[in-house]
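Hey, I was hoping to borrow your eyes for a little while. I've dropped the whole record in just underneath, so have a look:

——
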Amino acid sequence: EDPRYQKYQGLLTLLFNIFSFARIGQIKSSLDYTGRLLDRGFSILAFPEGRVSASGRMQVLKEGAGFLAVEMQVPIVPIKITGTQKIVPPGTEFPCWPRRGQVSLTFGKPLKFSPETDYHQATKTIVKAMRALI
């Protein structure tokens, strides 16, 4: 959760259906909410790096990526997003007016993990799939 956005969380949820996944404290409630959304047929777009990269380079994935992949038993589709740092540069205070620019998305093949998969190994597999998109 980025503290700059905490006071706007309600507005972001209302307008863009965004919710911050708790990194500490309320992790269980974040997992429960994510599970309820998946049960209702929603797709979840998660940013497993934890924040937008200032350099545009891939950052270290949080271990929760593998945990979610294994425990939620849903396909994980690796996505490469480029160009967002020009539209809303990292460190920009919210609310802000996005700049015009071009964003591109590259989709990888869906990954599915068995319930017995080690979370660390699942995270490593996700990283490998994401790096293949670079």
